[in-house]
Amino acid sequence: MSRFGRVGVLMGGVSSEREISLRSGHAVLKALQHAGVDAVAVDLQRDWSRNIEQAGIHSAFNLLHGTLGEDGCVQGMLEVMGIPYTGSGVMASALCMNKLLSKQLLSSAGIKVPLDIAINENGPLRYPVFLKPVSEGSSIGLHLLESKAQWLELNIHGSESWMAEMPVNGVEIAVSVLDGRALPPVEVSPKSGVYDYTSKYTAGATEYFCPARLPAETVRYCMQRAEEAVAALHCKGAPRVDMIVDGGGEPLVLEINTLPGMTETSLLPKSAAAAGISFEDLCLRILATASLENGGLMGGGR
Predict the structure, then answer these.
(1) Which residues bind Mg(2+) 2 (predicted)?
(2) What's the rounded mean pLDDT across residues 76-86?
(3) Residue 107 annotated as catalytic
(4) Cβ proximity of 2 and 37 under 8 Å
(5) Of 187, 266, 271, 293, which residue is the catalytic one?
(6) Which of 5, 10, 63, 120 could join 24 via S-S bond, C-beta 3.0 to 4.6 A?
(7) Residue 141 and residue 106 in one domain
(8) Is the separation of the CB atoms in 15 and 46 below 8 Å?
(9) Is 189 an active-site residue?
């Protein structure tokens, strides 16, 4: 048995990001097995605790994106089962999944974030705005609205589930933080002008530059701020901090993704490669961070 024991690569889930999770999961599974790790796929769909129990795993490599997998739910279940897992713990996962709450905490820690625009039953109070769901990932539901007519076209019911932000002109970057240390930022340049779901997962729809095309001192500053943001919300593993760098070189944090994708177009592997870390080594390094936030009711591990 390797030092990791049997590793369950948790993938799939029931969120809108299921297909992305499966792509990430199979890529990591292949890399771990190639490295000699006793790794098995655990595709979670219905009875999650039963699926995990039957897999007989000692630790979990969590690649469940979105609802239930990234918001603290599966993390809590793994705590109860005593199975160490990768990624952030229950509290940090829940906080980062809620973009409004995480922005408030980041702001209170002295980290700049975009200005929120209030939404009432008639829509945002001003335009243009970026409209996004409060608790979704992979830029699902992201819209750039330039008028009330566009809001009405969306026919949204329940505006409390949505948030609006004033657009920031600048360079969009993603800074991955591996075990507390920032990797080289990736500059994201979508050809459509908006880094939405289609731009993220359609080959050729977005140009990526790593390291970002920014002055060296700005890059270092962004990496420092990313580390501070991750520490402020107590994130672990390999979270990714998405930012906009304004014309003055000041980064504004858009959000923290606690379980970034590990697909062929994902940003975390690009950052790691720029730092000289292969995909296989990246997977092993993330796996080495697996832990239990509260010790687990069953004493940790099987």
Answers:
(1) 255, 257
(2) 97
(3) no
(4) yes
(5) 266
(6) 63
(7) no
(8) no
(9) no
